[in-house]
Design a protein that fits this description.
The chain is mostly beta strands and 70 residues long. The chain has one helix at 42-48; strands at 9-20, 24-31, 34-41, 55-60. The protein has 1 helix and 4 strands; from the N terminus they run E-E-E-H-E. The termini are far apart.
Length: 70
């Protein structure tokens, strides 16, 4: 399925933690054995209305990925 914009990567998982701040927050999701944390505005968190345990899909496009051994 296409989203209508140039998204190169998608990961589907489950919300495991939500941290709300005054203007920004963080959502942590599990993807298999991995955890992925996304920082976003508080407004975006409110708009998504996500709760722990719900399914979620992260879409992203990375222009650079740097790897370091170890």
């Amino acid at each position: 399925a296409t989203l209508g914009f140039g998204v190169q990567n998608t990961l589907s998982g489950q919300v495991v933690d939500l941290q709300h701040g005054s203007t920004r927050g963080c959502l942590t999701m599990t993807v298999g054995n991995w955890k992925l944390t996304s920082a976003m505005t508080q407004r975006a968190m409110e708009d998504l209305q996500l709760k722990a345990g719900e399914p979620v899909t992260a879409t992203f496009q990375a222009t650079d990925v740097l790897l370091k051994k170890g």
